[in-house]
Amino acid sequence: MNRGQLAQRILVLVTLSLVAFGLVMVYSATSAAAAIGNGDPMTYLKRQGIYAALGIALMLAASRLDNRKLRLLAPPLVLVALGLCALLVLPPLVGIELAPEIKGARRWIPLGPASFQPSELAKVALLLFAAMVLARKGAPRTLGELWRPIGLLTCVFSALILLQPDLGTTISLVLMLAGMLVVAGVPTRVLAAAGGIAVTVGLAAIWVEPYRRARVLSFLDPWQDAQGSGFQNVQAIIGMGSGGLTGEGLGHGIQKINYLPEAHTDMIFAIVGEELGLVGTAAVIAAFGAFAFAGFAVALRCRNPFGKLVAAGVTSLVCGQAAVNLAAVMGIAPLTGIPLPFVSYGGSSLVILLGAVGIVLNIAGDERAPEKRAARRPALSDRRRRNGGPRPALARGGGSPARARGGGDVRRVAGSRRG
Fold first, then answer.
1. Domain encompassing residue 144
2. Given a cut of 70, is residue 411 above it in pLDDT?
3. Which residues contact 169 (CB under 8 A, 6 or more apart)?
4. DSSP notation for 374-411
5. In the chain, what is the straight-line distance between the N-terminal and C-terminal CA atoms, in Å?
6. How far is the C-alpha of 20 from the C-alpha of 249, rounded, in Å?
7. Domains in the chain: how many in total?
8. Which residue in 157, 210, 277, 297 could disulfide with 7, CB within 3.0 to 4.6 Å?
9. 110 φ, ψ (degrees, to nearest 5)
10. What is the pTM of this model?
11. Cis omega before residue 149 (within 30°)?
């Protein structure tokens, strides 16, 4: 097995394992609340199972789609994502309600019994567009080159998403783009300048919004207001700490029962720590480490610049989002509302990320094609030898194979006559 095959198999194994593990943890985190709410403890599990089935189907379809054709899909996908994000924030400014407000945010468009989060589509749209531009124009050498058009589009998406409000997804976009720029070969000074601007804008967005400012201050000392702004931080720390080495046992945690807010979405890693302990949390972290290894291996082996950047972008998106979520739950970063990829409850994130993984699998398969052709060449040569050797080449200047084979005898006869 070569490295390309190994990376492809690791991606499939890790992704499906995390999805299956997520189904188990979603059921564990929601069964009690669902049973009390509507009498069916499997309510959330059924929904997440449907989302997982749709996502896996999309992953299989994307793995068979030629990734080079995605260049044509990037511009219309950007327009669709921009339009959907604008539908969430612009109509309420003129008194029109197209999306319900849930816990102070408008992030979802209702679609019958389900809902769709346009910011998840924005991630893939920006990824494909940035890969298309970088592959065509090369790595930007100045901030001006980076600004047009990638920086401008990133700012537009970020502004629309921050107005929802959703700082976590904005952070995911920036981390994804940063990974792509590094792989594209953007100079360090340009990356540093762009990073400084992004951090400054992010701090300003945190400071002007009271609830974001409260989150950051509570992260610095969550115990100062353990029943208020620091409640979620404190309960996550209690859940992580109470698990010990092997945990309380799957399904036996108590933090999910009206103690830890959003236990099945943003904070599901705290439930993993409480019920499966250090062993379970280490396994989850190792799984995302393996995903990063395989994803970047595919990107580095890819000879097509567009495919290389897409693979790097998807890997940066998944692992960057996971790193921010894990850091927040463990108390080493402020809470941002970012779900844990493949594990947290949520249909839009799960389906779109699985589709993105399918694109990476297609890129990995493309890189295996030359190896397959090279492996077939020796077998073809062996068959020719068994059939009597290669077909003779024609003599220069035309003629039949028979004349080419007999050329030497004719020359010898002619020489004997001259002698």
1. 3-372
2. no
3. 119, 120, 122, 123, 161, 338
4. HHHHHHHHHHHHHTTSPPPPPPTTS--HHHHHHHHHHH
5. 64
6. 18
7. 1
8. 297
9. -70, 135
10. 0.84
11. yes
| 405 in a structural domain | no
| Confidence band, pLDDT 50/70/90 cuts, at residue 378 | low
Quick check: is 97 in a domain?
Answer: yes
Give the burial class of 226: count Cβ atoms within 10 A of its Cβ; 0-12 exposed, 13-18 middle, 19 or more buried.
middle
Which are the contacts of 245, defined by CB distance < 8 A and separation ≥ 6?
A: 277, 278, 279
Counting other chains too, the contacts that 135-143 makes at CB distance below 8 Å and 24 or more residues apart are: 135/71, 135/304, 135/305, 135/306, 135/309, 138/184, 139/181, 139/184, 139/185, 139/186, 139/187, 140/181, 140/186, 140/190, 141/186, 141/187, 141/190, 142/190, 143/190, 143/193, 143/194
Does residue 223 lie within any of the structural domains? yes
Mean pLDDT over 167-183 rounds to: 93
Token duo for residue 30: 């929601």
Residue owning tokens 């951090």: 199
- DSSP E strands: which ranges in 38-100? none
* Rounded-to-integer distance, Cα 311 and Cα 293, Å: 12
Cβ density class 61-71: b for 16+ within 10 Å, e for less: ebbeeebeebb
Q: In the numeric block, which tokens belong to residue 207?
A: 């400071």
- Give pLDDT tens digits for 107-137: 888 887 778 899 999 999 999 999 999 999 9
Q: Which residue's entry shows tokens 């996908």? A: 77
